[in-house]
Amino acid sequence: IEERGLAPVTVVATLPPKDQDVLAQAYSSGCEVVLTNDLKWLRPRHRRTIAALGMEAHTPETLYEKLRPWLALWL
After folding, report:
1. First CA to last CA across the chain, in angstroms?
2. Which of 7, 10, 20, 60 gets the highest tally of CB atoms within 10 A of its CB?
3. In the Cβ-directed half-sphere of 8, how many Cα atoms lie within 13 Å?
4. What is the mean pLDDT of the chain?
5. What is the pLDDT of residues 2-36, one digit of tens each?
6. Which is nearest to 49 in space by CA: 63, 6, 59, 29?
7. Rounded distance, CA 51 to CA 48, Å?
8. What single-letter DSSP state applies at residue 3?
9. Is the dihedral of CA 67, 71, 73, 75 positive or negative?
10. Distance (Å, rounded) from C-alpha 19 to C-alpha 41?
11. Neighbours of 34 (CB within 10 A)
């Protein structure tokens, strides 16, 4: 984002105000994944915005499916 001259706030500004706060905090904290049960975060518009910030959005189920092949390494 910064490399293209866009501040992260510019990208987040396209989302509803409540979501802007959550993403701004997640971005500034260095999060890689936003875990939510709010399915609107999985819509293409939100996913593109979250991806532009270098993060992914997952529900607990989709995160489990993504990590399932690697779980045995952590047990």
Report:
1. 36
2. 20
3. 17
4. 83
5. 555 556 667 777 788 888 888 888 888 888 999 99
6. 6
7. 5
8. G
9. positive
10. 9
11. 19
Phi and psi dihedrals of 35, rounded to 5?
A: -100, 125
In one-letter notation, the amino acid at residue 59 is: T
Q: How far is CA 54 from CA 36, 47, 48, 72, in A?
A: 17, 10, 10, 26
Helix or strand or coil: residue 5?
coil
- What is the three-state SS of 7-65? CHHHHHCCCCHHHHHHHHHHHHHCCCEEECCCHHHHCHHHHHHHHHCCCEEECHHHHHH
Given the structure tokens 């987040």, which residue do they identify? 12
CA atoms of 24 and 50, how far apart (whole Å): 10
